[in-house]
Amino acid sequence: MSKILVTGGSGYIGSHTVVELHNAGYDVVIVDNLSNSNIKILTQLHAITGKWFDFHEIDLQSYVAVQAFAEQHSDITGIIHFAAYKAVGESVAQPLKYYKNNFYSLINLLTSFNKKIDFVFSSSCTVYGQPDALPVTESAPIKKAESPYGNTKQIAEEILQETTSVTPDLNVIALRYFNPVGAHESALIGELPNGVPANLVPFITQSAIGKRGPITVYGNDYDTVDGSAVRDYIHVVDLAKAHVAAVKRLEDKKAESNYEVFNIGTGKGSSVLEIISAFEKTTGEKLDYKVGERRSGDVEKVYGDVQKSKDVLGWEAELGIEEMMKSAWEWEKYIKANPF
Ligand code: NAD
Ligand code: WQD
Question: What is the complex's ipTM, to 2 decimals?
């Protein structure tokens, strides 16, 4: 059984990926500093899988700590690197906080695990900015980042590409996620936003449960189906499964080169108003919303070309907007009744 290190494994996408790795028969070890997650996730993961996962509270920004961890865990064959800060607005206010965490963590891992290693990196569709053509393919040009957060993903991809080109023992797959939403079907794990959610779906569920006021739709004058902005929303469980596919591809030595990139989305765009209406229809809850100004830095529309993921990675999304809305709502109700 191969041992996979999941950094950021108690976070939103990481926790769902731990479940899918376990279901696929992998031995999982988690590293997280709990800066944006809760230790109670381990109890939730146990309730879902029946397993207590090997957890290490380590700050990946510390080279000494990562080096010691790597020495003690020489049996790790693969790493899925989720751990990073991800709040776009905060990254504009505190760029160094983002550059320090997102780069130190990546570089400390790459230098400490300096042996034959498989590495899956969490990248983002943010690297495309507003693409010239849609659906956007992996070969589309990388646009100047709108935020320090986006810049950390662009530069991290470059760091990985340049490092793999001189390190044959390092095998990397970078997954460019579109907009992850939803929660595990058990409703025992899900997204835990810090403070007022900046992202659409957590704001919708918090508004519906009465924790927030009405939603503001940021702009209704875009050149889209109904004037509101369009994104490619992807169920977090589908996204988690894409990581298992990536780990398998690296393990089975199927990669065509030691640096590959895949879009991870559904290939389908949905507008903000369509998401609001899908939430109402799926859950029976009525949402209160108003239309406001466009949000600075937002792109008009983006959705991914997912042909390469289907053909090469052998992965495709299975869950639709209904499952995304329903599971996000079940999780919101669960966390209200069982606060962490
Ligand atoms: P998250 O904040 O829920 O999870 C990240 C986890 O990493 C948290 O548990 C946090 O405590 C941990 N962490 C952060 N810095 C750390 C450090 N120095 N040492 C150890 N642990 C640390 O975020 P998420 O939504 O699960 O995102 C996971 C990854 O996916 C991130 O790299 C993010 O940039 C990327 N991503 C997320 C989205 C999204 O919309 N959620 C979209 C594209 C890419
Ligand atoms: C989706 C749509 C908003 C809230 C961000 C990051 C990106 C990636 C995913 C990590 C947009 C609109 C939102 C609200 C609204 N993360 N909206 N009212 O902006 O596509 O992407 O998360 O890599 O880097 O930028 O996601 O969920 O914030 O917004 O109208 O209260 O919903 O304007 O059109 P976004 P989001």
Answer: 0.99
- Per the structure, the complete domain to which residue 23 belongs is given by 3-182+233-265+302-318
In a domain, 197, yes or no: no
Q: Which atom of ligand 2 is nearest to the CA of 229?
A: 34
- Tell me whether residue 129 is in a domain: yes
For ligand 1, residues with CB inside 6 Å are: 8, 10-14, 31-37, 59-61, 82-84, 86, 101, 105, 122, 124, 177, 180
Tracing tokens 């709990």 back to the chain, one arrives at 34
**How many angstroms separate the alpha carbon of residue 25 from the centre of ligand 1?**
24
Q: How many domains does the chain have?
A: 1
User: Is the pTM value of this prediction over 0.95?
Assistant: yes
Written as six digits, the tokens of 132 are 């010239």
Q: Whose CA is nearest to atom 18 of ligand 2?
A: 217
CATH number where 78 lies:
3.40.50.720
Listed in order, strand segments (DSSP E) in 241-314 are 259-264, 270-271, 289-292
User: Does residue 10 belong to any structural domain of this protein?
Assistant: yes
The mean per-residue pLDDT over the stretch 309-326 comes to: 98
φ, ψ for residue 156, nearest 5 deg: -60, -40
In a domain, 103, yes or no: yes
Nearest one of 66, 47, 85 to 5, comparing CA atoms: 66
Q: Which two tokens stand for residue 63?
A: 């080279």
**What is the number of the ligand closest to the CA of 98?**
1
Which residues are the active-site residues? 149
Q: Quote the CA–CA distance of 209 and 204 in Å, as a whole number.
A: 9
Position in ligand 1 atom list of the atom nearest CA 192? 3
* H-type alpha helices, the chain: 12-23, 41-49, 63-72, 88-93, 95-112, 148-165, 200-208, 236-251, 272-283, 307-308, 321-337
Interval 277-293: pLDDT, tens: 999 999 999 999 999 99
Look up residue 267 and give its two tokens: 């290939």
